[in-house]
Amino acid sequence: MGITERKEREKLEMRELILEAATSMFLEEGYEKTSIRNIAEKIEYSPATIYLYFKDKDELFFAIHELGFQKLLLEMVPLAQIEDPFQRLRQMARIYIEFGLNNPEYYDLMFIMRAPMNSIKEQVKAEQCWEGGESTFGFLTSIMEECIAKGLVKSDDAMMLSIYAWTCVHGMVSLNIRERLGMLEMDSDGIKALMMRTLDMIIDNIRK
Amino acid sequence: MGITERKEREKLEMRELILEAATSMFLEEGYEKTSIRNIAEKIEYSPATIYLYFKDKDELFFAIHELGFQKLLLEMVPLAQIEDPFQRLRQMARIYIEFGLNNPEYYDLMFIMRAPMNSIKEQVKAEQCWEGGESTFGFLTSIMEECIAKGLVKSDDAMMLSIYAWTCVHGMVSLNIRERLGMLEMDSDGIKALMMRTLDMIIDNIRK
DNA sequence: TTGAATAAATGAACACTGTTCAGTAAGTTT
DNA sequence: AAACTTACTGAACAGTGTTCATTTATTCAA
Question: Given CB atoms, is B141 within the 8 Å cutoff of chain A?
Fold first, then answer.
């Protein structure tokens, strides 16, 4: 009998329905306005129903944050075409910054907000804790290792080089998203130009 | 008659009372648990009273965030003793990181949370928008200018050098505070050591 | 086909939140 | 002593995440 299979499928579809409604609300209206009640109203179900598919709001937003990582990963696909690991590194950083500027809500959720991380707290031994972040960082580290192997960079510590690159670009993007760069009195184009110039300095600084 | 003076003084004292209660609650229990009702209960006043001294919760947290900048400024006083601007720069970055590690709640409020910035939004023409941030950044820029004047750094763009230094240290501290470095599987001492090593690289990278 | 078992969905409540405002109480002035 | 001013508050509004007994719908076995 295929009933249990159908039920399982329907359960997944319902989860998807909630997730899509929540995601579009989050991207369009922001985190604050994306309440369980609002999501429930949008999909014409009771608020309590959502709790049959997600443990709590944090888990729901963990799922949305994973969609963000999927999107970022997609943007990084073209990197595979770049032979030179140093150029690949530079381009990866550019894509990262552009992702942050073009998708501030996703970026916020992925790298700034507390919500999604709450749902993987205190269950550290679970095989996957923050899979998205780990794989992205792992990808960066592998590029750094290639750069080291080819003698393209000053340091030989791939982990530290990765931390260096990540924290630099994250610093710029996150200060911008959380409105700490207002004093520079620049429009978004100016901010982007500044970031790209700074990025070039950041990358050139580690070149041998 | 000194009555109006006394009244004014009492008004300031009441503001101070609210601010101190809110600050200690915020530092000890975090932002979420520092509700207007909880603050009111602590000082044994009605919640409505707080609104006679602060426009809204954002304005109250803007005031707390200013206390954070005061504290950071205090930690930076010893920098005046350092003659070499490049060493002063390095030490400033160390103090900044240490402040972030030792006062995560303050740091969060000053450089990550939305709350305090909401209260200076859409009133841009007001003489002071984010005084604390601007003066700290200005201080950094002045050190950079000194470094440039003495020919100690590669670039001659003080603003870009400042952005570079700030975003790097902010990136590290903020990723740590918002729990995005968990995958490194390091204790707080390890994180601090890593940050200080990375910092040395960041600073050495711009040295001529 | 009918009754029992199972699964899904919900209404209503709980305990909170920030914020407003009419009304009260206290202090000051005339 | 009455009028005015300032300080304060109770109660309400409109929202929040979350839980749980109860209802509704579906599936299974006799």
Answer: no
**To probe the interface with B, which of A163, A166, A199 has the most B CB atoms within 10 Å?**
A163
Query: Which of A58, A76, A54, A67 has the alpha carbon at shortest distance from A27?
Result: A67
The answer to whether residues B106 and B38 belong to one domain is no
DSSP tag of B80: G
Query: What tens digit of pLDDT does each residue of A22-80 get?
Result: 999 999 999 999 999 999 999 999 999 999 999 999 999 999 999 999 999 999 999 99
Q: B167 and chain A: CB distance < 8 Å anywhere? A: yes
pTM over 0.85: yes
Q: What is the pLDDT of residue A2?
A: 67
- B75 with B141, same domain? yes
Q: What is the pLDDT of residues A82-127, one digit of tens each?
A: 999 999 999 999 999 999 999 999 999 999 999 999 999 866 555 6
**Cβ separation of A183 and B134 shorter than 8 Å?**
yes
How many angstroms separate the CA of A34 from the C1' of D19? 20
- Report the residue of chain B nearest A158, measured CA to CA: B198
CA distance A200 to A197: 5
CA distance B59 to A161: 40
Count of structural domains, chain A: 1
Cross-strand bridge partners of residue A153 = A207
Q: Is B174 on the interface with A (CB under 8 A)?
A: yes
Identify the residue whose tokens are 């994306």: A34
Contacts A205 to B, Cβ<8 Å: 205-206
Segment B132-144, tens digit of pLDDT:
999 999 999 999 9
Q: Domain residues for B80?
A: 55-206
